[in-house]
Each structure stands twice: as structure tokens, then as C-alpha cells.
Amino acid sequence: MAVTIKDIAKYAGVSVTTVSRALNGYPDVSEETRERIKKIAEQLNYTPNSIARGLVTNKTHTVGLVVSELIKPGAYHPFFLEVLAGIKAGLRKDKYDLILFTVDPESQDATSYEKLCNDRKVEGAIVEGLRLSDPYIKEIEKTQIPTVLIDIPILTDKVGYVSSDNVQAAFEATSYLIKLGHRNIGFINGHGDAAVSFERLEGYKKALEKNNIPYKEEYVVFNDFTQEGGYNSFKTLVFEHPKITAVFHASDLMAIGSFKAAKDLGMKVPDDISIVGFDDIELASLITPGLTTIRQDTFKMGYNAAKHLLSIIKGEKPQHILIPHKLVIRDSARKI
Amino acid sequence: MAVTIKDIAKYAGVSVTTVSRALNGYPDVSEETRERIKKIAEQLNYTPNSIARGLVTNKTHTVGLVVSELIKPGAYHPFFLEVLAGIKAGLRKDKYDLILFTVDPESQDATSYEKLCNDRKVEGAIVEGLRLSDPYIKEIEKTQIPTVLIDIPILTDKVGYVSSDNVQAAFEATSYLIKLGHRNIGFINGHGDAAVSFERLEGYKKALEKNNIPYKEEYVVFNDFTQEGGYNSFKTLVFEHPKITAVFHASDLMAIGSFKAAKDLGMKVPDDISIVGFDDIELASLITPGLTTIRQDTFKMGYNAAKHLLSIIKGEKPQHILIPHKLVIRDSARKI
DNA sequence: CTGAAAGCGCTTACAG
DNA sequence: CTGAAAGCGCTTACAG
Description:
The structure is a homodimer of 336-residue chains.
Chain A: H1 5-12, H2 16-23, H3 31-43, H4 50-57, E1 62-68, H5 77-92, E2 97-103, H6 105-110, H7 113-119, E3 125-128, H8 135-141, E4 147-150, E5 159-164, H9 166-179, E6 185-189, H10 195-210, E7 220-222, H11 227-240, E8 246-249, H12 252-264, E9 274-276, H13 283-286, E10 293-296, H14 298-313, E11 320-323, E12 325-328
Helix pairs in contact in A: 1-2, 1-3, 5-14, 9-10, 11-12
The structure holds a DNA duplex (16 and 16 nucleotides).
């Protein structure tokens, strides 16, 4: 039913070999023949069968996007969309298509990462939202499938990653609070199953150290990046350590949870407590007071992830790609 | 390099025919042979080549998701993620994979809908976020590719759609305001390029009519579903018609824009003006005052879209599938 | 219950 | 510059 190169060959009075070569831009076809074939192909409304081509070339021109916990309101949720848009943009020029896989810990046990990719013959994959304890992590450490991770530091022969400079970003956010005069700075961090949590903690410590402020372990709490997490952590943190005048958060969602908790406790932001977030999600500029936070360029993260994956597929060496961030100052932190 | 049924056949001492049949569960293979072949396949870590299979069966077990304007902060942005999660859930059981296409008006001119789908041999597609003026709309009206639209009413031989009952939902929202005592109710509607805008307008009118409140055209403004849109529309609407005591919005984003505009104008919500939104995005419950709005079950929209697409692919008749909505009462509208 | 053979639509050495 | 032929990994009548 669909028209094939065989049909074209018949109409043109040439062999399928010649049709194939003409359409694929090989040099060893006379211009005249090529033009004739092209015209016929167009008239017949021919579209090449990518499946058939894929079978012989063993290339599918497809990459996978492996996402964990797509709609759980966790760490990656708020900017998944922008990362995705970036990925699509990065794939566009090379005309790679994207096939979406969603996984959770159980599905990872059921189907290995290699199998997931091989079943669909993707040439490589971008992986996002995995926890360090997820089964795929170990697999990816030794896979030969070109892979780019987002926010998970694994670097091998075939695996690279993109991320913000989380250490530096947390350093800047904390330093900013110190510059405003704060000395007792709490840190509501993400969960311990995310690489970024450790990096941000390092940045936080670095800033304290540089300013000769002793690090107090009890000022740091771990939670799950969500609004509820922030809400709960804030309440206990502030209750147990009334000297705290500012709280840095590993996500905007948690910072917003703290807004709510502060309100419930009768505290005003930033008058009674200064708050700084991380991510710069859309909401950050919409709430009152505007949330001071670290902006991650999530579109660029996706874009670079895609570009880098394509280069790994082409045989280039995987890298760690740093995406610039920026401290966005709004009204939720004040000088004391 | 990868192991094929040929390899298995050799090891098992049978023909590839038998291997194929054994692995695919055909009945005409002796149990003993089947078990032996299965075991060998497992030992060899065999995964079938879906490409090769696709070539002969002409089935790819893949559907497309065609999305327009992925990250433009427009109408669909806020709940794209949940729809997507619903789609993935709906596809899971039948093991269909999803390939993501993003389009804009230009790309639609460059590549027809049919070509987009045929190039990748998807068996059908879910389409989301298109404007009524988009080129694909006309194409989809006469396509033979199984298609399910979200929020766009096209029903043909091969095309169905899912949506909320927008007329009824707008009717309920408006009726609620009327019940609270409001008589001068503004309506900040979406743009005229969305089918839902007309449906919601109809519901708004119906509620007025039922309560013998004359419909005033000047109380209705169209904008683009975004926060800025709401902001601007609110300012002019309230300025030109000071008698208005309540405003219904075709999106939460616009309602939130109105929150901001009201604040700028020195008006308090709900004391000076009652506000009702549409969608129930996450933000609606996070802002102060909580936004009274219509909740759309976006996960279900995606889930049903996927299920329905699969049924159309199997030859069943396309339908219009209605997804239940719900008026969520919070604090942004008050009795007068 | 099993196998030989054709064929899905393409690409690519190889030969001329 | 062009074509005949093999082959990618599978499925499926057909025959036995």
C-alpha cells in the first residue's frame, strides 16, 4: 500500500539500488537520474520506511529519555518540562526522535536498563530523576550504551552527565546570607539519595568556613525536596534552634513550604526569618514575598544533555558538563 | 553481535521457524521443544529485535504524542506533566511505547501530520495543545491515522477526543458565584483559538440565563490563558466596570494574574473582589487566599486518551470521552 | 509438531 | 554511472 523504492524504481526504469543512492545523496549518480528519481518520489508521495532502514543500518535515529517518578511532586517535577523542551531542541538538528520511558524502582528490577534500551533499539539515552539507590545506577556505571545523566555524577567510557555547579551555587547562596549579616543559618537539604544534596551541603559548609562561622550539624536537616518536607523541617528546625535567622533550602518547593510554616508560626518573611531557595521555578517570582533563590538553567541542561549524548553516540568522549547558575535576589531575605 | 533467533536455532538444533513460534507462544510447538528453546534464549540473553519484527508485521507498538508549544507558559503547560503521566499509565498494560513530537505552526507547515506519523511508523497519536488555527487541525479532520485529541472536538472515523465537560464546569463555577450573591460577574476567558473557550463561555451564559441575569458582552474579555493575560484583562475589566464584584477565569494562571492586579489596585481578595479559576493547578492551593476553582482530572484525561487510542487502533469506534471535573471551594470567593 | 522458503523495505559491497 | 545480489532479523503461509 505505501509506496516503496521498488515502486519508484519501476516508474523510473532503474534499479532499486540507484533509487536508494539517488535519494540518499550518494555522489555516484548522474544528476539527471537523481532529479528524475526525486521528482517521481515526490509525485508518489514517497516516505522512506525508517524501520526497514533501521534494520539494515542498525541505526534507529532514536534516543530514549528515562525518567523516574514523573509526577511525584519531588525534586525533578518542577522543571522536568523545561529540561524536556531543552532536550527536544538539542535533538532537532540531527533529527533524532525521543522515546519516553518512565521507570520506578520496581520496574527497574523487572527490566534492566540494557534491556529497556535494547528492546527499542535506542542509540543512547538521557536519564533523569533517578535516586542513587535505584538499581539502574549500578547498571549505568558499567553500561556500554551511550548515556547522559542529569544531576547524577557518573563518568565512564560511554556515560557522561550534566549538572549545575551545586557546590558553588550553595556556596553563593549561603555567602549571600552571611553578607546580609546572618550567622545562624539553617539548611533544609534534599534527601540523601540525591547527589546534589551532598554537593549543596559542601557548598554550604564552605561558605561558613570561609567566613569563620562554625558548622553546626544540628542546623542541617534532610528532607525530600517537597513543599511538605520544607514545611515540616522548618517547624522543627526553628523550634529547636530559635537563634536561626535565615534558612537556605535545597529546593524552591521546600522554601515555599517554609513560607507556609513561618506564617503558621506567626513569623513574617523576611522580617523575622530570611529564606533562600534553589531552582527558581515559576512560582518563585509569583509568590509574596518574591523568593530569593538560585536559578538553574534547566532548558540548557536538557539542551546540553541532548547534544552531548549525540556526540557520545558519534564516538566522542563523555564529559561532565557544567551549566551556569545564578543567584536571583528577590525579597525573601533581608539584611540584619 | 546481538544474539538472534538464528543463533538460538543453531544451539537448539531446530529451525528458526520453530524458534519464532516457540518464543511467540504459538500452540503448534511441543512443550518440550518450547521449554528447551526458551531456556536457551534466556541463557543467551536473547532480546527480540523489535525493528525486524516491525518490518514484517508492520506494527511498531508505538504511538506518538504530538504536543504544541511545550514550554510556552500557555494553557496546557501547567498540566502537561500530569496528562503525560496518565498517558504513560494508560499505555503500560499493552506495552506500547511513546514517542514525543513537539510542533509549532511552522513545523506543521514543513511536515504534514501524516508524514510525521508515517516517518516513524507510529500506529496512532495523541494530540495536545494545538490551536484551532493550526494547520494540523484540518489534516486531522480527514486523517486515517488513529488519533485522540485532548480538548479539541473532532470526531471522525478514526479520530476521537477527551475533554472535561467545559460547558457544565463553567456553568457550575458561575452558578456558585451567583449563589454567593454576585450579580455582576466578569469572565476572563481564554483565547478564541481554543475550543474550550467557547464551551466555557456557553456555560457562563447558561448560568446567567438560568438566574435571570442579563448577559453583558462587555463583561467578557478574551486573553491567552497566561498569568500576564489575566493581569492585564483584570485591570481593564475592573476599571471599566466598577460594578463587577466577581470574576470567573478560564485558567488558574489568569486568576493568579488577577490576584496580582487586584493587589496593585489596592483591592483585597475576596473582600473587594471574588475570584474563581479553572484547572486547579498545584499553585491554586499554595497561594493565599486559596483559589476557588474547577478541578480537571488531567491524569485521567491522559489515561483515557491512551486507552481510547489503543481501542481505535484495534478497530473500535472513536468517541468523545468526558472526564469528570469538580468545583473546589477555597477562599478566593465570598458571599455578598 | 517441524522446516524450507519467501518476503517485509531498505542498504551496500561487488562487478561491470 | 548503474545493476544484480546478498543480507539485516524476523514472521508466516505452505507443505509435509
